[in-house]
Amino acid sequence: MAPEHDDSRLYGVQTPRVETIPPFVSSSGQEAIELAASVDLVLDPWQEHALHVGLGEKEDGSWASFEVAVNVPRQNGKGGIIEARELAGLFLLGEPLIIHSAHEFKTALEGFRRIESLITNYDHLRKRVSRVRRTTGEEAIELLSGQRLRFLARSGGSGRGFTGKCLILDEDMILGDDAMGALMPTLAAVEDPQVWYLGSAGIGPLSVQLARLRARALAAIEAGVPDPSLAYLEWSINPHVRECREDCTDHDDPNAPESVARANPALGYRLSLEHTERERRTMGPEIFARERLGVGDYPSDESDAWAVIGKDAWEALADDRSQPADPVAFAIDVTPERSHATICVAGQSGAAVHVEVVDNRPGTAWVVQRARELTEKWQPRCWVIDTGGPAGALIKELTDALKVKQDDDEDLDEDEEPELLAPIVQMKTRDVVQAANQFYDAVAAHRIVHLDQAPLATALAGARKRDLGDAWAWARRGVGVDISPLVAATHARWGLSVEIEEPEEEVEPWAAFG
User: Fold this and answer.
1) 153 and 212, same structural domain?
2) What is d(CA 2, CA 268) in angstroms, rounded to the nearest whole number?
C-alpha cells in the first residue's frame, strides 16, 4: 500500500512527459483498479492513469489501443501495473490465455510468484483457481473456466505454438526482432488482442522494439494526431545537450531534484529523494541519467530517418483541406507478420493526386467488411492488392465480399459469375516496382498532396528501398515501423491510372449468322 501523502516531501510527477493515446469512449480501467484494491494492491495515480488509458475502449467495445507501452525508470512500480492488468485479464475480461514474458527467467519467475501470492491469499479469487503449475519453465495459473496465465522467459522460440489474447512484455528495453517474431503471431488468430510493453529507458542496440514504439509516439506527437493503435507513456527528463547557463526552459537540469521528480512518479511514495541522491553519487552521470532520469539510448534516431523521401519534402505537400475527387482507387496492404493492415484511397486533387489513410488497425479480420462498406459508399474505379505481398491472402475473401448480391428472382446460369461492385486489380512484381518509383517521382514533382497523417508520416520516416534488379520497391522487413500505410498509399495512387480490363461480352454462337 502506498504511504500517506506528506506535504513536506517532494513527490513524483504523476503525468508522463511523453504521451500519445488513441481516442476512446469508455474504459475498463476503473474496474481493474477496484479489483486490484480488493487484494490490497493499491495503485498510485500514475499507475491508475496507465490502466485507465491502456484499457480504453472504442464505441464497439474493442480496445482503442492494440499496444500499450509504459516507459518508466526502475523501482517506480511498473510491476503493480502488470499485476493489475493480469488480474483484470483473468477475472474481469475473460481472456483465455495471457502470456507474461520477460528477458530473464528470474524476472518471469518473480512476476509469477507475486501474482500467485495475490490470487491465492484472497478467497474470492482463490476459489476460482483450478491449479497452479510451479514446474520450472511451466509456471502458470489456471482457472476453473479454463483461462490461463502463462510465464515465459524470452528466446527466439518462446511463445511458438501458443494462441494468446494478451501479451505482457516485461523488460521491454531488451526486446528485439527474434522475440517479437516468436511472440506476435500468437495473437494473429484471435479477435481484439492487446500487447503491453513495460520497462525502463533504452539501452542501445538491445532496445529495438522500444525504439520503434517511441519513434511512433514522437511522430504522432509532432504531427498532432494520436497514433491510431498505440498508447505510449514515458516518464523521463528532457536532458541538457550542453551545460545550462541562462535559458533552461527547453531542457531539464539533470542535477535538480525536480528532474528526479519529473522522471519518477513513485518519488515520495516508495522511492525517496535521499536514496536517489545516493545513486547519483555512486553511479556515473550517464548511468544515472538512464536508470533514474529515463534518458535512453535508442538504436534509431533522426539521422536514420526519412532516408528515401525527405521530411521537409513530404511536409511541404501537406494540405488539410484536400479531398479526393471521383473516381477514386483504394488499396489494401498488410504487414509481413500480419499484425496490422491498412486501407488507403487516392483521387485527383487539382493537378496533384490526393493520398489518404482511410483505416489502419491491428490484425486483418476487419479489412474485407470495411472494404465492402467503402465500395458501396464510394463506388471506386478499382481495388488494388499486391498478389505476392501479405495482402494477397485476402484476394479471394475480398472478391466474394464485393460480388453483387442477386435478387431471389435473378437466377444466374450455372457457369455465370456474379458481377463485382468494383474491379480488383492484382499487382505483379513489375507493377509494385513501377508504383514505388512513380510515387517517388510524384513527390519530387509536387504532384502528391496529403493530410499529414501520423501513420503515413511514421512509415515514410522509417522507409527503406528494396533493390529489385535495376529498380526498387519499398522494403517490408527490417524497417522497424508499420510500412503498410506507405505501401497502400503507393498502390492506391498507381490504381488511379492502371488500365482495367473490361470483362469480355459473351456472344451467342448464332449471333454471327444473324
Assistant:
1) yes
2) 9
